[in-house]
Amino acid sequence: MNKLTERFHRLKENGEKAFVAYIMGGDGGMERLKEDIFSLQASGADVIEVGVPFSDPVADGPVIQDAGLRALEAGTTLSTILETLRVIKAQVRVPLILMTYINPVLQYGVDKFALDSENAGVSGCIFPDLPLEEEGLVTGALSKTDISVIRLASLTSPEERLKRLAEDSEGFIYAVTVKGVTGERAELNAAELEAKISKLKTYTNTPVLAGFGISTPSLAKKVLPFCDGVIVGSKIVNAFHQGKREEVDELIKGIKGLALTVK
Ligand SMILES: O=P(O)(O)OC[C@@H](O)[C@@H](O)c1c[nH]c2ccccc12
Q1: ipTM score
Q2: Against a cut of 0.90, is the pTM above it?
Q3: What's the CATH number where 152 sits?
Q4: Which Pfam families match (predicted)?
């Protein structure tokens, strides 16, 4: 079984919610990528989402965009990220997913991408600018591997679309909590999100996780009662950039501790 699916089974058995940590691959260089992964693993992240920097990141807010620019300036490419992941593979127990716009994948070559990702220990991919209708571009190659394609569900998706994306979903479904780009928010509309997530859950048993704008235990607490976990990006990217590793450790422990008490 795929590492990601295995992890979700285990969380379910233990009555736990998932904490997914997003980082920008190559922000601060490749040694930092390794350190970031090991420190997130030690802090108790359940899944690590590694972003591949891209020049035209339409879904990214300012914090992730800046991190992407820093990573590109440091010479990061899809290839250097996959190579780094391959080197540390044996020491990584946490399932890794890649978050990449589709263009770098097409340039790299889809078949080579699938093969090299598998060899790098990647167990899932998110392609934020690849609509359901275009998934065929990658699924032919990825279905020969054990890698899941993780779909994004937006608050604006009509029910028919939610149904289609839920039905044969893999890994988990990424429910986008806000209309707009990634980044910290002071508030979020939990009622609207709950309605969408409960709809999704009528069509699938695939875990549904909420991401975008979640940066504190109190925001996580609003959504965890009706979803299977949260994804935190900008907060972590910022803290790591500023060298504040303890902040990330506290955040993960804070949210994981809370998640144990919500059922
Ligand atoms: O940064 P936030 O608001 O905490 O949200 C997570 C998000 O950054 C990460 O999952 C992500 C980064 N870039 C993306 C593009 C699309 C979807 C998701 C992402």
Answers
A1: 0.98
A2: yes
A3: 3.20.20.70
A4: Trp_syntA
